[in-house]
Amino acid sequence: MASARQIRQLLVELNKGGMTIFLTTHYIEEAERLCHRIALMVDGRITHTGSPEELIASCQTEYLVQITAGAPLFAVLADMERDFPDLRIKRQSDNCVQLHFSSEVDVGPAVEWLHRRSIPVLEAKVIKPSLEEAFATLTDIDINTLHREKEGGKR
């Protein structure tokens, strides 16, 4: 009997060979990994279609960058908000913040701003919404309900 991994690999190979595959799954991560186009269904009706990237982009309302520094950030956060008026900052820990922007931006100026204050930036990563988050937003289903269903609960 073939494992799930072998079956997924076979589907990828058949698709690369030109075959169209119609896959139905409850596993959003599997759909995101295997599918070029996705149809979201709720109560038996297709509500949205598109590539994983299109579905995610259609519900993205802000852009998020997480910065991890080599020194505490709390002393400079008010100045940073003043110098970057389109920015909302959410503190994750003493050395980690999430920068929320209303539009896609170059994170370089924020990193340079910190460097000028002798705060080393260890990591700056863009955090994109997942397809699961897009599904919850587009279908108006609570993300916590999705997580409970994944664990075997009922909606």
Number of domains: 2
Separate helix tally: 7
Label the structural class: alpha+beta
Gyration radius, to the nearest Å?
Answer: 20 Å
Give helix and strand order, one letter per element, not per position.
HHEEHEHEEHEHH
Point out poorly predicted stretches: none
Total strand segments: 6
Distance linking N and C termini? 33 Å
Mean pLDDT: 88
Give the overall shape, derived from the CA principal axes: elongated
Considering DSSP H and I runs of 4 or more, what fraction of the residues is helical? Answer: 25-40%
In short:
The chain has 155 residues and is an alpha+beta fold.
Describe the structure.
This protein has 155 residues and is α+β, with helices and mostly antiparallel strands. The protein has helices at 4-16, 28-34, 52-58, 77-83, 108-116, 131-139, 143-150, and strands spanning 38-42, 45-50, 63-69, 87-93, 96-101, 121-127. The chain has 2 domains: 4-58 and 131-150, no CATH class; 68-127. Helices cover 39% and strands 25% of the residues. Strand 4 and strand 5 (96-101) form a beta hairpin. Helix 3 (52-58) crosses helix 6.
